[in-house]
Fold SusD/RagB family nutrient-binding outer membrane lipoprotein.
Amino acid sequence: MKNTYKITTALVFALVLMVSCTKDFEEINTNPNQPLSVQPSLLLRQVIYDYGEQMSYEGFTAGNLLGQYTTALDFNLFDRHDLKSPQLGGNPWPIFFQNLRDNESVIQLALENETFAVYEGPSRILKAYMAAALTDLFGDVPYFEAFRGKEGTVTPVYDTQQSIYTAEDGILDNLNKGITALENYTGSIPLEGDILFNGDLDGWIRFANSLRIKALIRISNQTDVATDLQSIFTAGNFINENAQNAIFNFTDGEPNNFRLARLRIGDFNNFVMSETMEEILAGFNDPRIETLFRPFGNSDSGEFNGLLNGIDATQNAAVLADFSLAGTIFRENTSELDANFMTSWETHFLLAEAAERGFITADPQQLYEIGVTQAFEYWQVALPADYLTNSAPYGTGGDASIQQIITQKWIANIINGYEGWIEYRRTGFPQLKTLSASLNNDIIPVRMPYPAEEEALNSVNYADAASRTDGNSINVPVWWDNN
């Protein structure tokens, strides 16, 4: 009996101990500094900042090489159009997918919890914005099955660019749904973490409508967009002045300054003004050259000089002091610089093109002149009195005026160099130059290549996508590009 009693007592004690441990297990093993759920405000802020900061750097380095704003003196395989060899930029793929994944979490939180409903509109609009930039660079990409790692989908198929733009839950659909969600929101909980519009829901609606204009113009070679564009223009609820721009400011000091300011001086000095940029700015007698670039070191009269893109640095050692570096706004004074998502000047250039092509009923010259005026204001440069009459007049219409519109938009987009390259692919303007020592048979690329890790990590779907692009060729145009 005594032995039985001792055993029973021991069992009871063990059971009590087990229950107690089980009861406290979750509390004991939960790190209070690492919460299991994330507030959508924190995710929204992170997505906006991380994407804006990283893509501004990407746009200025690799994008500016492709768009021929700048050229590289060394470490320049990418500048010579070996796009599978990114150097100091040139690999935006992980930036897109990391931020689209985090943004998808915001969308799901908004859909699953009424408390977070105010986040649905902005997160849908951001998804459309980032997805458009992704597919415009690469063409067909993982989209409808992507961002579902938690659900076990780790090898998503590559969707066609056409479906990404036009299908349900695609770019245009998410912009429309985002606007509807914002217009129908009746809750009292404010939008927090919003570093673009400080919680102003009307600002997000204007942003979405400007993005709709941009998306429709981009696919206008493939589908009829006139009715939708006219409707948006007539309603007038798009970004209409620089005070409404979708931007956030960098600072002069770390950690929130423009990343180019954090490069060691040798890397910063690798990027100089391109010959293409010099000729265009000089042709317009454009005073923005003094903000965007510096006089070259060997000049004794404050002159500017550009270098033809894609030199063979092993055979032709360019002298830094003979060429113009980027302006102080990109390094010493980055508090004057913005991470640029969408602006009024870009919207007006898009509308000017829409009017010139007959998609909307409006005066294209007036829209063009508003775009130019606002672009000068954005870059904090006084517009010369005769700029729109003598230096850069609208022209006589047709291709000549389209060239003026796109070229002025190209200049202003210097921090978003990928945009300049994309618009060149769509329109042929401005006319870019043949490289000094091309590694792509003197052909200007028309898409970015899928990164090598895709072939390793998503091999079956990568192989299918590669077969549609002649083996992942950079010379196969994307769907909307039939220029």
